[in-house]
From TrEMBL:
Organism, as annotated: Aleeta curvicosta
Name of the protein this chain belongs to: Cytochrome c oxidase subunit 2
Start and end residues of each Cytochrome oxidase subunit II transmembrane region profile domain: 1-83
Cofactor descriptive note: Binds a copper A center.
One GO BP: ATP synthesis coupled electron transport
Entry similarity comment: Belongs to the cytochrome c oxidase subunit 2 family.
Lineage: Eukaryota, Metazoa, Ecdysozoa, Arthropoda, Hexapoda
Amino acid sequence: MQDAMSPLMEQLMFFHDHTLIILIIITSIVAYMMTTFIFNSIVNRSLLEGQLIEFFWTFLPALTLIFIAFPSLRLLYLMDEVNKPLMTLKIIGHQWYWSYEYTDFVNIEFDSYMKSYDKMSNEFRLLDVDNRTVLPFNTQIRLLISSFDVIHSWAMPSMNIKVDAVPGRLNQA
């Protein structure tokens, strides 16, 4: 993952690590138990029937899901929270370019095309554009995203923003 540029993306990266550690522990325990059962020929009859062990192998997965679900739900609600934005940026996807419009200001709109390979110097191929969008730092910004012709995806991974631009539909981030 890219370095986090927002507190929410940082929390998502911590949640990813938290869930990954839980999954590694579960995978290790299951692998150990499978190898033990495969290579061990001794059968313990008290493990074949017992309500106590059935309770534990039902309770422990439920407890594990709770440890994953609560942080996940908290992050989902934080991601959906929209405060009072100080600025609105309207983004429209076209077949080969994006159109941007600062709706809070009068007549500030421009198109952003990908740079051709021969005009680039020390830039990322297929990622750099001729007109970049400039946004203020540490400000609540509303993004209104739509498309003119086909389905697009507008993304800023370091800020945890990825919104689909669908023709005839207005998405907000």
